[in-house]
């Protein structure tokens, strides 16, 4: 089938792609992934992601933000860097930002402060936010909800939660990003039962490469490294779980990504 998919979250600035990034992008194009949003998650990766996007105009775009794992590194310089990058046409969202109490690589107060400051940047710049939340639902909602009226749009990136949190995010107007987690028969089975409640106009697809290699790929790849070409596996699994055609899910998620990130119509 001929797809025209958009991977809304791939960490292409990750050093695991340094040796074969061009080949990875060619495989993605061959698989029908026409555009990729490169995730920024730290000062260094934000600069690298934007440079990658500028090197492949019309194909790569990027985000700029500080992941909660790196919240202790968030500084006035980080704030200024994100604001500066946000003026570039290739930077289409603020983030990845949010809260992660599962690992707590940064103290919670540092995470909360960095999250609030990045929401302020998004408000000031008029860009949507690319959100991360793990085991921090209550604090996440408490910080995000008051900010939403002044934010253009927001996506719950890599949603892996339960039905209750999904309903709450949808009621808040969040878009929902689904990754290869749904392809994991051990951890992602519950998503099959709830993904159907996501309205057609709030669903987005992503790989989160190099992480979350879909476990449904046959034959299994020799490497555990995920890449954007495997977005088609997420697409097929999501379509089956929603009881919709692959073509329909490809169409709506591409349309949603264009609208969410304010991309040019292809």
What does this structure look like?
With 266 residues, the chain is an alpha/beta fold. 39% of the residues lie in helices and 16% in strands. It has 9 helices and 8 strands. It has helices spanning 21-30, 43-55, 76-85, 108-125, 137-147, 163-171, 189-194, 231-242, 246-261, and strands spanning 5-10, 33-38, 60-64, 91-100, 129-134, 154-156, 175-178, 203-205. Strands 1-2-3-4-5-6-7-8 form an 8-stranded parallel β-sheet. Strand 3 (60-64), helix 3 and strand 4 (91-100) form a beta-alpha-beta unit. Helix 2 packs parallel to helix 3 (76-85) and helix 8 (231-242) crosses helix 9 (246-261). The mean pLDDT is 97.
Topology:
Elements: E1 5-10, H1 21-30, E2 33-38, H2 43-55, E3 60-64, H3 76-85, E4 91-100, H4 108-125, E5 129-134, H5 137-147, E6 154-156, H6 163-171, E7 175-178, H7 189-194, E8 203-205, H8 231-242, H9 246-261
Parallel strand pairs: 1-2, 2-3, 3-4, 4-5, 5-6, 6-7, 7-8
Distance between the termini: 18 Å
CATH level 1 name: Alpha Beta
Strand runs, count: 8
Give the helices and strands as they follow along the chain.
Answer: EHEHEHEHEHEHEHEHH
Q: Please state the average pLDDT score.
A: 97
Strand content: 15-25%
**Number of domains in the coordinates?**
1
Main sheet strand line-up: 1-2-3-4-5-6-7-8
SS element count, helices: 9
User: Into which percent range does the helicity of residues fall?
Assistant: 25-40%
Question: Main beta sheet: strand number and arrangement?
Answer: 8 strands, parallel
Query: CATH homologous superfamily name?
Result: Metal-dependent hydrolases
Q: What is the CATH topology descriptor?
A: TIM Barrel
What is the CATH architecture term?
Alpha-Beta Barrel
Uncertain runs: none
The rough form would be described as globular
The secondary structure category is: alpha/beta
* Cα Rg: 17 Å
């Amino acid at each position: 089938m001929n797809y025209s998919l958009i991977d809304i979250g791939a960490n292409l600035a990750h050093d695991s792609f340094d040796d074969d990034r061009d080949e990875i992008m060619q495989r993605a194009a061959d698989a029908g992934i026409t555009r990729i949003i490169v995730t920024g998650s730290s000062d260094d990766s934000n600069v690298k992601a934007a440079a990658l996007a500028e090197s492949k105009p019309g194909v790569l775009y990027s985000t700029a933000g500080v992941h909660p794992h790196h919240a202790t590194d968030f500084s006035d310089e980080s704030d200024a860097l994100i604001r500066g990058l946000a003026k570039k046409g290739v930077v289409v969202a603020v983030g990845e930002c949010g809260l992660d109490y599962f690992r707590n690589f940064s103290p919670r107060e540092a995470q909360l402060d960095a999250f609030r400051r990045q929401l302020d940047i998004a408000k000031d710049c008029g860009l949507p936010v690319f959100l991360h939340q793990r085991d921090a639902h209550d604090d996440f909602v408490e910080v995000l909800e008051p900010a939403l009226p002044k934010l253009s749009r927001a996506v719950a990136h890599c949603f892996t939660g339960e039905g209750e949190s999904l309903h709450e995010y949808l009621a808040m107007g969040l878009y929902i990003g689904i990754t290869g987690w749904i392809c994991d028969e051990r951890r992602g089975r519950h998503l099959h039962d709830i993904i159907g409640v996501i309205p057609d106009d709030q669903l987005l697809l992503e790989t989160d490469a190099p992480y979350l290699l879909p476990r449904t790929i046959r034959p299994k790849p020799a490497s555990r490294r995920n890449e954007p070409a495997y977005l088609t596996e997420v697409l097929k699994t999501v379509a089956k779980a929603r009881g919709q055609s692959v073509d329909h899910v490809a169409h709506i998620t591409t349309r949603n990504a264009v609208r969410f990130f304010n991309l040019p119509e292809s």
